[in-house]
Amino acid sequence: MLKHLFNLSIKLKFARTNPVRQVKMFREDNGRTRYLSQDEAESLLAVCNPDFRSVVLTAMHTGFRQSEIASLRWSSVDLMNRSITVQSCYSKNGETRTVPMTADLAKVFGQIRKDRDVMPDDLVFLNRYGKPWKSWRTAFGNAVERAGLADFHFHDLHHCYGSWLAMEGVNEKGRMELMGHKDSEMTLRYTHLSMDYKRQAVVKLSSFGSDSPQISPSQPVAKVILPWFDVHQIVDNY
After folding, report:
1. CA distances from 166 to 35, 64, 118, 202 (A)
2. Segments of the chain assigned to CATH 1.10.443.10
3. Are 65 and 92 in contact (CB under 8 A)?
């Protein structure tokens, strides 16, 4: 903060130098590992208002970011092939990305389309008054509070998507493409495994107990008998 303050002061002509410039900063761990369990996800969806529930479900089952969901139009929704496309102008990495719909998501989108007389350029998600969402900060905050969740943000639904894919065995390349990441480090940052998943993983390891068949019965070690030399004789010969 102090470094930024001096940089701003230089920009505004209130200072000439930044005395904090040469100070080495500690490395901060700003990564989050918050994601929802199955029960938590069901609780959150259960307390969402009907118009907002479809938004949260879309974030959970596509990994789309807030801006990508808010800008989604019916021209990007293919109910016949069950896929949704984020256009490059709205995606974070500037590339078009298409993801398949889950059965739950296809059902929700089908119902929304059935309830409305939609045009290709219409926004998919509207609030209860039939207007485009300006912000769903309040709606999400209220839903999180009603669900009894702690320290959970809307962007953490992106973490949920990546973590759930990993725990279902989707490989790294598949997760990168589905989540719209250009490098694997970003994908790994958004991928977390539950403790139950880790427990199940270590159970699969081979057992190496004393009675385990993986361990060969101990064999007697053959002794190597070296010939005896008279050290004094060797020294005398040299």
Report:
1. 13, 17, 36, 16
2. 38-195
3. yes
For the chain, the first-to-last Cα distance in angstroms comes to 78
Q: Reading across the β-sheet that carries 97-100, which strands appear in turn?
A: 77-78, 83-86, 97-100
Averages of pLDDT over each 10 residues, the chain, 238 residues: 91 91 74 75 92 92 88 92 81 76 91 90 91 92 93 86 80 72 61 58 55 50 52 49
Spelled out in words, what is the top-level CATH class assigned to the domain 38-195? Answer: mainly alpha
Cα dihedral 230, 233, 237, 238 in deg (nearest 10): 70
Eight-class DSSP state of 132: B
pLDDT value at position 144?
94
Residue 57 pLDDT: 93
Where helices occur in the chain by DSSP H, the ranges are 2-11, 38-47, 50-62, 66-70, 103-115, 137-147, 156-167, 172-179, 184-189, 195-203, 231-237
